[in-house]
Amino acid sequence: MDIFGIPHQALLAQLFLGLVSGCFYALLSLGLAVIFGLLNVINLSHGALYMLGAFLTWMGLSYAGLSYWTMLVLTPLLVGAFGILVETTLLRRLARLDHLYGMLLTIGMAQALEGLFHSLYGVSGRSYAVPELLGGATDIGFMVLPNYRAWVVVVSLTACFATWFVIEKTRLGATLRAGTENPRLVEAFGVNVPLLVTLTYGLGAALAGLAGVLAAPMSQVSPLMGSNLIVVVFAVVVIGGLSSILGAILTGLGLGLVEGITGVFYPQLSATVVFIVMAIVLMLRPAGLFGRQK
Questions:
Q1: Which class does domain 2-284 fall in?
Q2: Is residue 204 a contact partner of residue 89, using CB atoms and an 8 Å limit?
Q3: Beta carbons of 284 and 239 less than 8 angstroms apart
Q4: CA 38 to chain centre
Q5: Number of H-type helices and E-type strands within the chain
Q6: Where are the domains of the chain?
Q7: Digits of tens for pLDDT over the chain (294 positions)?
Q8: How many CB atoms lie within 10 A of CB 278?
């Protein structure tokens, strides 16, 4: 059966690829939205943290002989710990200054990380095989589903909505939101607000690291992989609303599907359709689709 002259299997396959891209957009934009929405820090090093997660995974498999499953747990913890180190030693010192200083710091950190891995490994990409358990594809009747990409979708959606639930629906999340809005009042109740801030930044970094782990078997691991993606991710966050956790998730998934559909009907536009959507949204709703209007 054809849809608009296109075989339905080809259309579904392209939509699924768009969903996979949307999962990466959602996971990365969620980390950005968590850090900005709760800490008011524009983290321009997020793409470098994504790259760091991919490289740590590759290094763990290539040098230490660790399994993909070990790195799936270990890498987000390591990247999150690196984020905690950055927050406690650098960003915390800039907390009372204009937010521009924090943004400039994260730009410098991104450049430093990219430069370090560029000097160590060059610009050529590194790769490793998909785990044996997740190799191959499954015929589900109406399309052939690549097993690893299906795994990426499941893990990404689980991580995204678990993060949203903790921040928006639990007492811990309510305490965190209150602590960022009125830290002195919350500290009066015995809550360690600086610790919550540090852990929040670590969570955002860990989400970028998790995205790097998931991406590494699907693409070349290179120092530029983060900078190539972060521009699109920032556009996703702007469209969804800078301070909206759920907006980052839904917008990331939706724009991935839009990108997939565009790739079917007008491939030349697929690389820029996100920015076209951003321009339209900003004209109609400057705060973003899920952002709060002031």
A1: mainly alpha
A2: no
A3: no
A4: 16
A5: 11, 4
A6: 2-284
A7: 555 555 566 677 778 888 998 999 999 998 888 888 777 778 888 999 999 999 999 999 888 889 999 999 999 999 999 999 998 998 888 877 777 888 889 999 999 999 999 898 887 778 777 888 888 888 777 677 889 999 999 999 999 999 999 888 888 888 877 777 777 777 777 778 788 888 888 999 999 999 999 988 888 889 988 887 888 888 888 898 877 888 889 999 999 999 888 887 887 888 888 899 999 999 988 888 887 665
A8: 20
